[in-house]
Specification:
Number of helices of chain A: 0
Distance between the termini of chain A: 31 Å
Structural class of chain B: mainly beta
Oligomer: heterodimer
Strand content of chain A: over 45%
Helix content of chain A: under 10%
Strand content of chain B: over 45%
Radius of gyration of chain A: 13 Å
Largest interface: A-B, 27 and 25 residues
Shape of chain A: globular
């Protein structure tokens, strides 16, 4: 158990809908990362927050947004969902926002868009 | 998008054998090269990582070999065990940009 929690574990929704995925980092970790894992695209970095501020941005679609709250938990919002958004979404956390700092991954949220 | 190429896609090794997974990268700005291990139904977990100032790093049965001029790095698992059966991902990122790029993954099966 990495200490990172993600809810919900599974999410099934329809095209065009909007969902929110939640992540609680390990105690003491200030940085949160979001990743998408799909069969065709593999594991992709989406976005990173450090102590409430956006730190780095990867291949995140404009329909997706994230934020990190004062209590350091983070939410990933996915809107206007398409079939291709079906994937595993992982949150990871690290103590600092530095590249060399180990990231601890949560168990993921499996999103199915029908 | 794919800046890290990983091979093989799958690998079957006998217990006690050596598992070797290779990765190649394109972006010379990359200066951090981690390997992640992922079991079914779980998130990836950091296994071992290397920076380009060294050519090899060993932790227990796991060794990373790094060739900066060839822009290649590899993971060697010595004395492979059935418990090592998992998917392994190489990755790369640069210090001034946390946009980590992952290889496509290698599914390792270690037969008893």
């Amino acid at each position: 158990d990495s200490g990172v929690t993600q809810t919900p574990k599974h999410l099934i929704t329809a095209t065009g809908q909007r969902v929110t995925l939640r992540c609680s980092p390990r105690s003491g970790d200030l940085s949160v990362y979001w990743y998408q894992q799909s069969l065709d695209q593999g594991l992709q970095f989406l976005i990173q927050y450090y102590n409430g501020e956006e730190r780095a941005k990867g291949n995140i679609l404009e329909r997706f947004s994230a934020q990190q709250f004062p209590d350091l938990h983070s939410e990933l919002n996915l809107s206007s969902l398409e079939l291709g958004d079906s994937a595993l979404y992982f949150c990871a956390s690290s103590q600092t926002g530095e590249t060399y700092n180990e990231q601890f991954f949560g168990p993921g949220t499996r999103l199915t868009v029908l | 998008q794919q800046q890290v190429k990983q091979s093989p896609q799958s690998l079957i090794v006998q217990k006690g054998g050596i598992s070797i997974i290779n990765c190649a990268y394109e972006n010379t700005a990359f200066d951090y090269f981690p390997w992640y291990q992922q079991f079914p139904g779980k998130g990836p977990a950091l296994l071992i990582a290397i920076r380009p100032d060294v050519s090899e790093k060993k932790e227990g049965r796991f060794t990373i070999s790094f060739n900066k001029s060839a822009k290649q790095f590899s993971l060697h698992i010595m004395d492979s065990q059935p418990g090592d059966s998992a998917t392994y991902f190489c990755a790369a990122s640069s210090y001034n940009n946390n946009d980590m790029r992952f290889g496509a993954g290698t599914r390792l099966t270690v037969k008893p």
